[in-house]
Structure formats: structure tokens, C-alpha cells
Amino acid sequence: MSASFRELLKKVGSGPHTGKNLTRAEAATATELILKQEATPAQIGAFLIAHRIKRPTSEELAGMLDAYDQFGGKIPPLTEETAYPVTVFGVPYDARSRTAPVFPITLLLLASLGVPVILQGGDCMPTKYGLPYVDIWEGLGINYRSLTLEDNHKLLSETGIAFYYLPKHFPQAQKLVPYRDEIGKRPPFATLELIWSPYAGEANLISGFVHPPTEDRFREVFDLRPMKKLITVKGLEGSCDLARNRTGIIGVREQDQEFQRLNLHPEHYGFAGRDVLLESKEQLIQDLQSVIEGKPGELMSAAIWNGGAYLYLMGICADLSQGLAQAEELIKNGKIADKLRELQIQVTTNLGSGSKN
Length: 357
Fold this sequence. Notes:
Pyrimidine Nucleoside Phosphorylase, Chain A, domain 2; 2 domains; 7 strands; 10% strand
């Protein structure tokens, strides 16, 4: 048993009257002891559920991120200057179980315009047990599971799309996944993952969220840690995919600038509609392939809406209308299909990992 961890556990687990928040340094120490498995399983489980009930403060999240930076592997920084900053997308690692992700199309679109993008996640994970993004990419012919951090560095440099795969790139954090199932709730690390950058260089960060207090904490963490730009998205199931059946709520915070709130109304641009349900992996891959081939459909509308919104948010287009028009053109003229083929060739030929359909 770790005596030092027990003292930290007592602080967060003593209840609303006598419990105390951890300092940033204490939160970093607690996370280190958990990642190194120096705390016992009983201590780790107790800490995770107590911290969830208490809710992590922004200072605690900053300390946890400090520990992740110290112990987690990171994709090496690009050596050549890019037209746009590297952008990391923070999405729930337990993925989506109700709505169909259109996010791979968005990443292909951004990469086709010179925006280097990084997505992160793992395998099927509690508590949602949604369809992992790594499985979706495999369905599109890209096996990210076998790639090293150096492989992803090369992919990011040459194709603009990298994937940080938790089991391979951060095994210490992967060992905490069973706790999610055993406690039956998302632990504070699930919040941490939405705002952690697995890139060793400076990057913009786009984080999905569901509940407004989470976004508030993200904004406070921005003030505590070096970040160039933070974009928060109230997306489908906490992802970065914008819904079509409600207003898109976006927050933008840049260094030395005030927080900005953007409300994107799909009905104002002719894109209101139902959000496509996730029926099966096979159906989703088929629908994504149809979008890539430029065929019409409900997922096509979602792809254009999301693609246009991100072209606007990333500063590629001056306004949302222009972003939507350019997104539609890029998808329907084959640019997305070209980017996917480029990615497939790089992975299967130059990195030798093979593809899996």
C-alpha cells in the first residue's frame, strides 16, 4: 500500500464537509502513483470514484495533465513549418453508441487543405462501449493499431493525419481501462483525455463536451497550461461532431484574447435534419464510403455541415457559408477520396503495417 497516496485519497474522499481539493502538484503526484501502479487497486478504485463524485477542479486537471505529459508517449513534433497549426481533437475514448460518426470525413477534408490533424482513442472501452474510431479507420482500409509514434510522425508530416492509439502509445494509461468497467462510471481520466494533447509540439486543441461545467473547467485549464488555441464543441455524445437537429454551441479561446461564443444554426443554412443513427459498423463504413465517393444521402449532409463548420472555425474560410460551399466542393470533386488513397498508400507501402477491411 502507498502511504503517500492514502493521504491524497483521504483529501478527496472525506466528503463535502471535510474533504479538500488537491493542489496542482498533489494531483500530479496522485496521477503518477496511479500510472506507475504504486497505489493498490483498492486505492485506485476508491480515488477514481471519490474524485468523480467530488468532480475535479481545473487546478487538479492541470496537475493530472502534467503527469500525463511526463509519462505518456507523444508524437514527435514536425520539423517543417506547415500552412496551419497541428490540431488535436479530444473525443471520448469510449466513443459513440447512438449516432453515426462523420468525423473521419472532417479529418480527411482538413488534411486535404494542409491542416495536420491528430485523433486519439483506444479499443472498445467502458462505460459506453461505443464503436472505436480505430475500428472505423480499419474499415476504411487504414490499420492504425500497428503504427509506432515515429510512424505517426511520418504520417502527420506526409499525409496530415495521425492517430494516437492508447494501448500501444500509452500502456500505463491503458492499464486503467478495466477500472472504468469495475466502477461503472467514467473516471476523471475520461475528462482529462478530452483536453490532453499527445503531440510533443505546440498544437491547437479542439475538445468535445456534453455538460457546460466541463467546458468551464476546460477554459480555466487553458489559463493554467500553455495552449495556443482551444475550441470547445458541444457535439454528438460529447464528440466533436456537430448535430444537425440543434444549434451547434462552440467556444473559442486564444492566447491574449477573450473567450468567444459561437452559435451555429443548421436551419439558417439549409442543413437542419435528423442525426443519422449508428446501426452497425458495416452500415457506417458503407455510408462513409458513399460520402467519400460523392454520393448524396443524410450522412453527406452531416459531412458538409461539419466540414464547412470546421473550415470556418480553423480560419480557412472567412464565413460559414463559404466553408459549407468549399466543403461540398472538396467532397464531391474527389479530394477526400484522393486523401484517403494517399493515406492508404503511405500506411500499406511505406510503413508496411498493412490494411484491414
